[in-house]
Design goal:
single chain, about 10% strand, globular, disordered C terminus, binds iron/sulfur cluster
Length: about 250
């Protein structure tokens, strides 16, 4: 645990954040929901199973909001991340939908660039992210009206302009980020207060968790994304799931 994740947060401040986030989720449901929380849902939430997404998961599943939560299993995730899926089922009695990359696409990728080709260049890394994340995400969002993410402005330079509600031009649907204003300390205060299950890697210094070969623990004072693709410049460090500023209204 970092100092930030164990920092005290004023209860009134946290309550206000939670109330604002509930209001944003209610607004998203009113405008985009179709009453379904299963695969028929018009409103979905993409979860990386990290700390922020567990705040939203708790708010959505405890109140049984008509929002389908899904995750992308890239085939390169940590075992600790996959364990979160089981803990969600146990805690809430509801499952997270899992999307996988197309087997043929993964085979072609690995044949072309090797099993760990993503370390060689930014282009090779983006090709891997495209096959394992971007294309499955497109499939998960097909036919939806809107999607919800756990992004926060504070997380990295590429997210500094993040809005709570935006137009995602890449997918042609609305994109909501109800935690845009939250601090890292507030995220952890919520998880502790509500005893929400979380990824055990967070206790080992991992802040932003992605695929195992592309994620590492960060040092005190480093930003949350410093542990992702650490061999690249900060400005290139998005996987294509969240293109900074793209189409924001
Ligand atoms: S994070 Fe790494 S392993 Fe995962 S899809 Fe992107 S390049 Fe591939």
């Amino acid at each position: 645990m970092s100092e930030t994740t164990t920092a005290a947060v004023d209860a009134a401040v946290l309550d206000a954040r939670v109330a604002a986030t509930r209001a944003i989720l209610a607004d998203a449901v009113a405008r985009h929901g179709n009453g379904h929380a299963d695969d028929q849902a018009s409103l979905v939430m993409a979860s990386s199973l990290g700390a922020e997404d567990m705040v939203l998961t708790d708010l959505i599943l405890r109140e049984r909001l008509p929002i389908r939560i899904f995750t992308l299993d890239t085939g390169r995730l940590h075992e600790q991340t996959l364990r979160v899926l089981a803990r969600i089922s146990e805690s809430y009695g509801q499952d997270v939908r899992v999307y996988f990359p197309a087997a043929g696409d993964v085979e072609s990728l690995v044949t072309a660039q090797g099993i760990n080709g993503f370390y060689v260049s930014v282009d090779a890394r983006k090709a891997c992210c495209r096959v394992r994340k971007v294309l499955p995400l497109s499939r998960a969002l097909t036919g939806r009206q809107a999607w919800i993410t756990g992004l926060r402005r504070e997380q990295s330079p590429t997210r500094a302009e993040l809005l709570a509600e935006a137009w995602d031009a890449d997918h042609g649907i609305a994109k909501w980020s109800p935690l845009a204003d939250w601090s890292e300390a507030e995220v952890w205060a919520y998880l502790r207060a509500h005893k929400v299950p979380y990824n055990a890697l967070h206790d080992q210094g991992f802040l932003s968790i992605g695929c195992a070969p592309c994620t590492r623990a960060v040092q005190p004072g480093e930003d949350a994304r410093a542990g992702r693709w650490w061999w690249e410049h900060p400005e290139t460090k998005e996987c294509g799931l969240h293109v900074a500023g793209a189409g924001e209204a």
